């Protein structure tokens, strides 16, 4: 069974090559992570051209900062963090709008995160889910992506986006409900 150290050492030789500014290592690392990181960008930004632009900026940052990578975490987690931060920077430049709620009134209701209205998973394709996710407003889509797809908790999301924990929870809850409604409309 793989240990945490095994995951941290994945692509160790490639990273060491990148730290030596070896172009072959850089191409291989980019080739390994470009597609999954593009998908992260696309989920968060909705538009292919924005995703492509942000991905390129992120990899410039990655190769510029690779000397600071010290194998305390996995290279994939480190790369994903940089990519997500670049996506958030891009959204902030476009003035990401979220509704800040009265957290005293809404936290307890949102805390339970009522499940979204049901939709038939058997009739729903990955492509339909992607399409419906792209139809969400930016605030909903970003919080949903960070929480559901990228594994951040609401505290982390609130710090990343500069919103309250209650706002993160309510945006997530509303995004799930809206996503379910969009998927039901497609079926």
UniProtKB/TrEMBL annotation:
Residues 127-179 form the RNA polymerase sigma factor 70 region 4 type domain. Keywords: DNA-binding, Sigma factor, Transcription, Transcription regulation. GO terms for molecular function: DNA binding; sigma factor activity. GO terms for biological process: DNA-templated transcription initiation. Transmembrane segments: none annotated. Residues 29-95 form the RNA polymerase sigma-70 region domain. It comes from the Bacteria. InterPro entries: RNA_pol_sigma-70-like, RNA_pol_sigma-70_dom, RNA_pol_sigma70_ECF_CS, RNA_pol_sigma70_r2, RNA_pol_sigma70_r4_t2, RNA_pol_sigma_r2, RNA_pol_sigma_r3/r4-like, WH-like_DNA-bd_sf. Belongs to the sigma-70 factor family. ECF subfamily. This is RNA polymerase sigma factor. It comes from Neolewinella aurantiaca.
